[in-house]
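Supplementary material to the annual report.
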Amino acid sequence: MTDNTLTCLTAKDFTSNQEPKWCPGCGDFMVLQQLKSAMAELGLKTEEVVVVSGIGCSSRLPYYINTYGVHGIHGRAMAMASGLKAARPDLSVWIGTGDGDALSIGGNHYIHTVRRNLDLNVVLFNNEIYGLTKGQYSPTTKVGLRTVTSPNGVVDYPINAIALTLGAGGTFVARVMDRDGKMMKEIFKRAHNHKGTSIVEIYQNCPIFNDGAFEAFSDKERKHDTTLYLEQGQPLVFGSNGSKGIRLDGFRPVVIDLEKEGVSKEDLWIHDENDLIKANILSRFFDDPNTTEEFLPRPFGIFYVEDRFTYEQALDAQIDKAQANGEGTLEELLAGNSTWTIN
Amino acid sequence: MSDTAILNKNDMVISKTSVSVLFAGDSGDGMQLTGTQFANTVAVYGSDLNTFPNFPSEIRPPAGTVSGVSGFQLQFGTTGVYTPGAKFDVMVAMNAAALKANLKNLHHGGIIIADSDGFDAKNLNLSGYGEANNPLEDGTLNDYTVFKIPVVSLTRKALADTGLSIKMIDRCKNMFVLGVLYWLYSLPLETTIETLQSKFRNKQDIANANIKAVQSGYNFGDETEMFSQHGRFSVAPAQKKAGVYRRVTGNEASAIGLAAAAKKAGLELFLGSYPITPASEILQTLAGLKKWGVKTFQAEDEIAGVLTSIGAAYGGALAATNTSGPGLALKTEGLGLAVILEIPLVIINVMRGGPSTGLPTKPEQSDLLMAMYGRHGEAPMPVIAAMSPVDCFYAAYEAAKIAVEFMTPVLCLTDGYLALSSEPMLVPSPDDLASITPVFSPERKSDDPPYLPYKRDERGVRAWGIPGTPGLEHRIGGLEKQHETGHVSHDPENHALMTRLRAEKVARVADIIPDLTIDNGPEKGDLLVLGWGSTYGAIKKAVEQAREGGMDVAHAHLRYINPFPKNLGAMLGNYKKVLIPENNCGQLLSIIRDKFLIEPVGFSKVQGLPFNEMEIEAKITDILKEL
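Predicted assembly:
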């Protein structure tokens, strides 16, 4: 063992001295655990990480991680983190935010942060409900759900976070289920290594106010038919024993029964996470299996990755260029371009 | 006209101590450029100077109409130049609409230099005079000295052999008028010629044409008999402190003040900002200072403007945001966060007429109460106000110093009048600027006792524990925190304690700010005129004039509004009456009445216009009569 490996931190080193105050059974616990493990496995140092959050249950995240953390105000985590990253590109900046925080009150910051592509890692906890304020519907709540503010059922059509992110120019777009801990950790690690704004949407069950919101995708009996796990370079296959696949008919995705029709897997849609058009089509796999008879499976994994310059790189490059012949002095700043002398 | 005019019959040059000039024309006539050139010339010549642009909020309003008139006003002189002038002594009117829009603000008997080519039937109709009523001909202007000059025709004649198109030649007409003004005020052409050569260095024919136009205008003054019975004027240079000068607008000065503070403090400057009239030039100026390492972030909205700055401040930058009233309203939740986080942040609010969109291009002082109290919860923060364009530099600088040294957001108030006005600034030496000393928490070893992010020094100020520092890992946020540890706390006694500690810290800023001094007048007496912000010039002039007239009146001007200077209460007690002129409905008056239980006399002006000295002098006279 070298000194280097000796100093490597473990998930425990990323655990703060505060007891998480989430409800028993909350999906947030898994996210916390996987995030700490990912940080440790990435070899991050606790002092170089900042976790920024807004308001909501999930936004308590920073308190439970033994790094730097700022718990800001509702909807503004993206903006605060953007300023921090622009000023301090050396830091590893993570954002914990929820569907209400990021997509409702903070919707404007969300789209503009995504398009600017600062190197930020966004953990978007989507539980399709307002938990901290006790059960009001959120911008991702399904139509028809009865909540305290929709006693007759929600009439607001929900936001599709993945499609929104792609529309805003996202460069790393992924979705993961709260129960898929291993996959979550791997996606967090890839999000960190991606230079740009990484959006990881997590379907996170709220056992108190919206229990079972994602059951169609997690129920052992149904998940084979309702979910599609994306793997780079692999055909889109789902169903029990991989019995179904997706083929592209022009721009139309078509579900193929591999057993019945005898289609070979080579004819199926091969996942290419660098293909924006395909990612956009995948993002529209948004049917609700509970209310739709013929539905496309809901994709999980990495939809899209693009290598694009980050905001802070471009800004620093402009500064470097302006300072090519040396940094301006205070004397020069005070005098400006045009002076005259009075004797 | 502040004239100690002496007629020297030999060369017919009349000396003046100060002159106020308005250049007015159509938006496309280049009046801002003309005014700026005149200002630069008199500045280099050594005059005291104050300028104010007055242009429509529309970018290209209908040509020839009153709503399309663009003006540039300036006052220059030997002494006593504190404002662009309440009324002007000389008006340049490039067309009929320019005359119509501004005649009411010309001194009785003042000089009008009119481009008679801009008073043709078309222009007369567009201006609203009507073609049958040419004011240059019908006696409307009998009370004024009118010089009718066919500027367009003369410019075309002068530039006929340049080979330029008529359209290009006509664009030089403003330089012809400028030349006439230089002759009239015995000013040199060199500054303008140098500027034109530099501005058009890649278009020599344009440079030459403009230079020829300004020279032709000057020669016209020399040769024409038009001016002979009136003579020309001269304004001696001011007795200014020796040194290097530059001309700054208030917004430029604010921007440079922030950048200078960052340099002096050894910090990186970060400005998160969203464009808004009349504050955008601060963002624009700082965006051009990358050579000084300044980072500007044009945010998606006002809220992101302040939140990105809070993020940068948390990371250890000197962070600032700038805005105007509607934007400040949007930022208020963020300011509450900055208060409870106890991080340094400068907010420059360039006030404009409100509420709502109000009068976006016009100044007002009506955000003072919002600056003082406009936040949820108990959220005090220092409030300081700039009193002149140059003072915007020092106000921004001091705001940064207080923010960094007291770990607090600081609100710095300027307004649309200061923001766009300009005056000469004596360039300070870096050594003249006060030191700014940030206190960062040092690195800690694993066996050190736990880090206490909210441990305070004797002034109640916490240290700046910035990410990247080993051993300081800690979590803070908008939730109330436990004393010293910074952990989330809902304990009632702790909340009371933290509320008190935050307020006491802001109150202790009074320990480092200077006592308020009397700007002019006796230490005790009948009347104190107490001002703040951009009313400085008008009050100063009014009090000077009132005192020359034998009135018992003094002037003091507040830079620090929260906290007040420690001696303010005692000072107010030294006068029988206190007059507070404000471009609002009495906001400072409310605060003064609240804190000192006295009943000052208010004087409000909410017309989207600054006070002029005559209004204030008249008010002083009225009050003293009643005493």
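Residues 235-270 of chain A form one domain.
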